[in-house]
Hints:
The protein is mostly helical. The chain has 17 helices and no strands. Helix 11 packs parallel to helix 14 (291-304) and helix 12 runs antiparallel to helix 14 (291-304).
Amino acid sequence: MTKYRWQASALVLVTFMLGCNEFMVVGVLSDIARSLRVTVATAGYLVTIFAIVYAVSTPLITILSNRFSRYKTLMVLLVIFLIGNTWSGFTTSYGWFLVSRMLTAAVAGAIESLVILFANDIAPRHKRAMLISWIAAGFSIASVVGVPIGTAISTATSWHVAFHLISVLSLLTVIVMACLLPRHLPQTPGGIKDQLVLLTDKRIYLGALLILFSAAAMYAYYTYIRPLLTTGLGFNTTALNWLLFVIGLVSIMGNRLSGTVAEHRGLKIMPRFYLIDIVLLLLFPLAMNNQLTGFGILVILTLLISVVNSPIQIHFLDVAEADYPQALLLASSLNAIFFNVGISVGSAAASMVLAHSGLKQLGLGGAVFSGLALLTTITLNRVIAQHQATR
């Protein structure tokens, strides 16, 4: 049991490292723009291109790496990530910095998928859902702890130093993973076609749509969380940092809640959460007229809107283990892939709502996506029940 705890901590450390690398740029964007002599708008493309490369490369790498040892693949990808992040820390031109960010983005999604696969293998069955929820929480912990520290270091010294610290963390992670992870995971070899058949299963593509709509519902308002708190609710800059810290802590609690839900009835009770989300998002315009109710509704939404993450991840793994063992690694990557697609959809919707209706109406777009998620999860539960009845 002691070894399992060390292994579990190491897996969470990986997502914390990935989160620091991914989110750090947002916190130091102005510093990067000034240092590399480009506009802030141009520097902003670093975030967009990172997300695109991440979404495209993750399924490609997971499919192509299926024939190789899980342990060796993860070690190679971690080393590539370390090289890319270290390169970011030393670069002095925008073009090379962009290339280094693309390199880390290319492997980040596959690393996360492999980490989930290791968690699925090493965790006792009754602890699997909670470990997966903690792995997801690694990103939230990075946003609450790692990114503010990195931003403070960048402000006091240089953004280069902040990236160097992530490289130190990455090197530590590689060493820890090399020592603690099992060398051999059970895996069923399969070609590209054998793996892609997973996506034809109704239980899988409905689950993917559920993740997409859930992420879109969140980012339909969360994309503009800072202006919502400042321009919308009137909080000052000093209060903003503390409010974002609170939201980050609640996000970690939401991941823990997600693990608890997955351990119990999982997807069966998800419609209740989506109904609550819809009500809160419809009340959004009214709640935003007052600081207390506005911030309160943002906190409750943060707690509830990502509860689906662990139940749907367990669902993907269970379906793949039972019927598509050759596509288990691809199944572990679906959550990350479609969540990023959902972020893009939700952000685009948020931009349109903001342009035509204003900040306080952002929740209405989120309510539409939550409604689609509700219909999808009801349909998915029926399909699962029908499949179980015919087995």
